Structures are given as structure tokens and as C-alpha cells.
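Kindly inspect both lines:
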Amino acid sequence: MGAELVFFSPLKDDLLPECDSLYLPGGYPELHLDALANNTALKQDIIAHYQADKPVLAECGGMLYLTESLTDKQGAKAIMVGLINGHAVLQARLTALALQSVEFNGQELRGHTYHHSLLETSAPVIAHGSNPNGKHCNEAVYQQQRLTASYIHFYFASNPTAVAELFLP
């Protein structure tokens, strides 16, 4: 659709590359607490990107990175970016595994959820996913300014137009 992808690593890069939109996909931030917490320059760049009213899409581990703090299974707690009010704590067991379908901004987007954490947040919820298999897993989609975040890993091919709208400057 004409986007130019520019890659970076929150673990290794001190600066956010010049970009119009930011995508923070899933991952396992709990495995890299110190590196993520100590990369203050990149965290400040991400905050500046958000404050400039540029789009951010954060999924699962990317969303956890944007919270105020993240605690791993052993109880180690680290300060994250702080754009999303709230704290995430890893659990001993899987907390969600399900297909998801969510409608927001008037369009349906499909994906899945798989995570071991619980998030306590006051972030504004704009939608909840539904599970086509009837499971009781209805993940929230949070949105504040141009930041959209969820535990849902969205399948971009399920609705390219809806995804493009999330990234349009």
C-alpha cells in the first residue's frame, strides 16, 4: 500500500528512526526488562512521537512496553515507557489464547490473542474483541489520541484498509 518500512530495536537502538507511524508488535518484553527500562533515550523518542500526535499501534508485548511498569514471573519490576496508564504482571499460567474479531472505527479486524500477563489500566477502551469459537476471551482495544493498543495480534490481511487507517499520519 506504499508504506516504507524502517526497522529498529528497542533493545539496541537509542533513537527512534524518522517515521510517520510506529508499530510495536508482540514479543516478550519480560525477557528484556533491564534493557528496555534502561533505554531512556528511546523511551523519550517514543513519548515525543506520541505527543506529536503521530499514530502508534502496539500489540501484546508492544502494549506492555508502553505501560508504566512490567513485572516478570519472578517478581522483578521495571519501569516501561509510561504512555499507557497501568501496570502489567506476568502470571504463572497462560491467561488468554483465542481467535478475536473486533469492530472499531466502523470496520472489522481479525486476529488472535496469546499472553501470560494481566494488565490493570485506566486507558480508554474503544472496543472489545469477540471469539468466533464461543470462548469467553474478549480482549479490549484501548485508544488514546493516535495510540491504539491491545493484546490482540491483528491479522493485517483481514482488512488492509482498516489497518492502513491506524497508521495514516
